[in-house]
Design brief:
heterodimer; A: about 350 residues; mainly alpha; 13 helices; B: about 325 residues; ABC transporter involved in vitamin B12 uptake, BtuC; about 70% helix
C-alpha cells in the first residue's frame, strides 16, 4: 500500500477553500498541542483569544486597528505575487511611506495651506513607499538582481534610516529623551472613525476593490496575470514585462507606504519607535492566507490581526507569552505552503504498487 | 597606540563575525544543493536557545554546543521536508520558519526556566577565550586571531575543509551538481532527494553552531533578540560570498569589522553614523549582486547554483 500523487489539471473553489481551512485548523491544532504541554486548556485558551479579539466593541475596534496596516501591506504583496514578483519588502516600503508622510507633516505645514496638508501627507505616504518599491524593480531590470534578496535587504536599510531620523536628526528636542519626532500639526492627522480606528482601513477596502478591478477588468491586469503565470509566454505575446514589473512594484510599494502613513498620521501622530514590527513577513502570511485575491486578503488581514490581539488577551489572563500569535502565524503559513501540494496533486491511497505515478517520498 | 587599536578592532571583529560565519557556511552548504534557505534567522534563534538551555541544565558546554547543533539540524530537517518532500514554495517555507521559530523560541524560553519560569536573565556556563601558545604572540594577528574561544578555532579548521570538500572531492562535485543541474545529476545516479536532505540538515547543524556561539560565548545567556538580525546578515553573506566559503570569511570580517567600529564609536560618544555603518552589509550585498548578475559570464563562473529555489521532480 502506498500513497501516490497524481497531477491535477485544475481545482475548484471548494478545494481551494478546504485547503485553506484545513491549513488553519492544522495550525490551530499544533497550537493546542503546545498549550496542552504547558498545562493550559486549549479550548478555554482559544475561547479567550476569540473573546479578546472580537468579543466586544472595544476588542473588535482594536483588532481592526491592527488589521489596517496588514490589509494594505497584504494587498501590496499579493498584487506583486500575482505578477510572480516576490516583494518581501513591505516592511521597508511601509517605513519609507511613514517617513515621507512624517516629513511632509512636520516641515510643509508652514507654507502649505492647511486644507492641503492632509492630502499632501497621504500622497507623500504613497509616493515614499512607491519609490522605495521601485528600487528593486529597477535593480532587477537593469542589474538582474533577484527581487527576493533586494527587497529583503532594503528593509533593513529603510528601518535603519528612520531609526536615524527619530533617534537623532528629527528627534523632538522637547521629547524628554523619548525617541520620536515632534507631534504633527492637527491638520495632518488622519480622521478617525472610532477609538484609534482611522480611515486607513477604508483606504484598504477601496484599494482592494481597485486591485480587483485592475486585475479582472483591465488589459494591464490581464497582462499582469499572464506574466505571473508564465513570464515566457507573456514575452512571446508581446507583453511589456519590464513596464508591468515597474508598475506593479510601484503600486505594491505605494500601498504599503499608505500603511506606514496610516500608522504615523492616524495613530501615533508622530514618527516613533515601533513603526517597523515585522509587517513585511506578516503581510506575506496575509497574502498567502487570502490566496492573493483581494476579498480573501481582507478576511485574512482581520483573522491575522485577531490572532495578535487575541494573544495579547491570552498574555493578560493566562500569563502566556504573546509570542503564541507568532507561532500560530508561522504555522499557518507553513501549512498553507504545504497545502499547495493538495492543489497541484490528488493524493491517492493505492493498494497495488503504482506503475507510472509519482511515489510520495 | 595605533597598533593596539587595530588589534582590538580585529579581535572584536572576529568574535562578532564567528556566529555569522557559521551561519553563512551553513547557508552555503544548503543552497549549493539547490535548496533556498531564508529560514536561517529562525534556525539560529532556536539553536541559541537550545545551546543555552542545554549548557544551563547539564552544566556542560559541550552538551550546550551539541544541543544547538541538533536543534539547528532539526529545524533544517523541517525545511527540507517542506521543500523537498512536500515541494512547497521555498521562500514561503523559509520565512514561515523564521516567524514560527521566533514565536516558539520566545514561548519555550519563557517556560523552561527553573520551576517553569523564564530563562531570560539567567547566567549559565560561558565559553572562555584562551590563547594558543606560540601563535598568540605573533604581532597584530596573534592576539586577535589566536586569543579566541574554541568555536572560533573550530571555524579556522572548517572553512578550508568545507572549501576542499566542495571543490576538490567527489561528494562535493555531487553536491554542486544537484544544485546546478539536478536532472543531469539524477541521470548519473546521484540521489537528488537524499542529498538535498543531507545538505540542508548539515547546513542547519552549522547554523546551529552559530546560534550556540551567540548564547554561549558572544552574549552568554538567553533573550529572544539574541540574534538581532544575524540570520539575515548571513543570508546576505551567502550571496556576497557567491556561495564560496573562502569569500565568506571576507564577508564575516566585514560584518564583524562594522560591529567593532560601532562599539568603538559608541565608546567615543558619537552615535550618528552607526546607523549608516549598520546599513553597510545590506548595501554591500546588493552591490555585489549587481556586479555579478550584470555580467553573464561572471555569473556563470561564480557559483550561483542555477537550480536554487526550484523543486526537482523525477518524472
Amino acid at each position: 500500500m502506498k500513497l501516490t500523487l497524481e497531477r491535477r489539471q485544475g481545482y475548484g473553489q471548494w478545494t481551494l477553500l478546504l485547503t485553506i481551512l484545513g491549513a488553519v485548523l492544522v495550525a490551530l491544532a499544533f497550537g493546542a498541542l503546545l498549550l496542552l504541554i504547558v498545562g493550559v486548556n486549549p479550548i478555554e485558551a482559544y475561547r479567550l483569544m476569540f473573546v479578546g479579539a472580537f468579543g466586544s466593541e472595544f476588542a473588535t475596534v482594536d483588532t481592526l486597528v491592527k488589521a489596517s496596516p496588514l490589509l494594505l501591506t497584504g494587498l501590496g504583496v499579493s498584487l506583486a505575487l500575482r505578477a510572480n514578483i516576490w516583494n518581501i519588502g513591505a516592511e521597508g516600503q511601509l517605513v519609507m511611506g511613514g517617513f515621507a508622510a512624517a516629513g511632509v507633516a512636520l516641515f510643509w505645514s508652514e507654507w502649505l495651506p492647511e486644507p492641503l496638508l492632509l492630502p499632501a501627507v497621504i500622497l507623500a505616504g504613497f509616493v515614499g513607499g512607491a519609490l522605495w518599491g521601485l528600487i528593486p524593480a529597477l535593480l532587477k531590470i537593469f542589474g538582474g538582481v533577484n527581487e527576493i534578496v533586494s527587497t529583503l535587504m532594503l528593509n533593513y536599510v529603510a528601518v535603519l534610516w528612520v531609526e536615524y531620523l527619530f533617534f537623532d536628526a528629527w528627534r523632538d528636542p522637547r521629547g524628554f529623551g523619548f525617541p520620536g519626532t515632534a507631534e504633527f500639526p492637527r491638520a495632518a492627522w488622519l480622521p478617525r472613525l472610532t477609538g484609534q480606528l482611522h480611515i486607513g482601513i477604508i483606504f484598504g477596502l477601496i484599494i482592494a476593490a481597485l486591485i480587483w478591478f485592475l486585475l479582472n477588468r483591465t488589459t494591464i491586469g490581464y497582462e499582469i496575470r499572464v506574466q505571473g503565470k508564465s513570464p515566457l509566454s507573456a514575452r512571446y505575446a508581446g507583453i511589456n514585462v519590464m513596464r508591468n514589473l515597474m508598475l506593479v512594484m510601484f503600486l505594491s510599494g505605494g500601498i504599503a507606504g499608505l500603511a506606514g502613513m496610516g500608522e504615523v498620521a492616524g495613530i501615533s501622530h508622530r514618527m516613533q519607535n515601533g513603526l517597523a514590527v515585522g509587517y513585511g513577513f506578516t503581510a506575506l502570511i496575509v497574502a498567502f492566507l487570502g490566496r492573493l485575491s483581494p476579498p480573501g486578503v481582507i478576511v485574512a488581514a482581520v483573522f491575522v490581526a485577531g490572532l495578535s490581539v487575541g494573544s495579547e488577551q491570552l498574555q493578560l489572563s493566562m500569563n502566556l507569552p504573546a509570542s503564541f500569535a507568532l507561532i500560530l502565524q508561522g504555522a499557518v503559513l507553513l501549512c498553507i505552503a504545504a497545502g499547495d501540494l493538495f492543489l497541484r496533486y490528488r493524493v491517492r491511497l493505492n493498494v497495488r504498487p503504482p506503475s507510472q505515478q509519482m511515489v510520495a517520498e | 597606540m595605533e597598533l593596539a587599536l587595530i588589534e582590538s578592532v580585529l579581535s572584536i571583529a572576529i568574535r562578532a563575525g564567528t556566529s555569522v560565519l557559521f551561519a553563512t557556511l551553513g547557508g552555503i552548504m544548503t543552497e549549493r544543493s539547490g535548496v533556498l534557505n531564508l529560514g536561517i534567522e529562525g534556525m539560529m534563534l532556536l539553536s541559541a536557545l537550545a545551546g543555552f538551555a542545554g549548557a544551563f541544565y547539564s552544566g556542560s558546554l559541550l552538551v550546550g554546543v551539541f544541543a544547538g547543533m541538533i536543534v539547528g539540524g532539526l529545524v533544517a530537517a523541517v525545511h527540507a521536508f517542506w521543500c523537498v518532500t512536500l515541494s512547497a514554495n521555498q521562500v514561503a517555507s523559509g520565512l514561515a520558519l523564521v516567524i514560527f521559530s521566533t514565536g516558539l523560541a520566545d514561548f519555550i524560553g519563557q517556560n523552561i526556566g527553573p520551576e517553569g519560569t523564564t530563562l531570560v536573565g539567567l547566567a549559565g556556563p560561558k565559553l572562555q577565550r584562551f590563547a594558543v601558545p606560540g601563535l598568540s604572540s605573533l604581532p597584530i594577528v596573534g592576539e586577535s586571531f589566536f586569543h579566541q574561544d574554541a568555536l572560533t578555532y573550530l571555524l579556522y579548521l572548517l572553512v578550508p575543509l568545507i572549501w576542499y570538500y566542495l571543490f576538490k572531492t567527489r561528494p562535493g562535485i555531487h553536491l554542486r551538481a544537484i544544485g546546478e543541474n539536478p536532472r543531469a545529476a539524477d541521470s548519473l545516479g546521484v540521489s537528488v532527494t537524499r542529498l538535498r536532505y543531507v545538505y540542508t540538515i548539515v547546513g542547519g547543524v552549522l547554523i546551529g553552531l552559530g546560534g550556540a556561539h551567540l548564547s554561549l560565548a558572544y552574549t552568554p545567556g538567553w533573550s529572544v533578540d539574541i540574534t538581532s538580525g544575524r540570520g539575515w546578515i548571513a543570508i546576505a553573506m551567502v550571496i556576497f560570498s557567491l556561495w564560496n566559503p573562502l569569500r565568506a570569511v571576507i564577508g564575516a570580517l566585514l560584518f564583524g569589522g562594522v560591529t567593532a567600529i560601532q562599539f568603538r564609536m559608541q565608546a567615543a560618544g558619537t552615535s550618528i553614523p552607526t546607523f549608516f555603518l549598520s546599513m553597510a552589509p545590506y548595501i554591500a550585498t546588493i552591490v555585489a549582486l549587481l556586479f555579478i548578475s550584470g555580467r553573464r559570464s561572471l555569473y556563470r563562473h561564480n557559483g550561483v547554483p542555477s537550480a536554487l529555489g526550484t523543486v526537482y521532480h523525477r518524472e
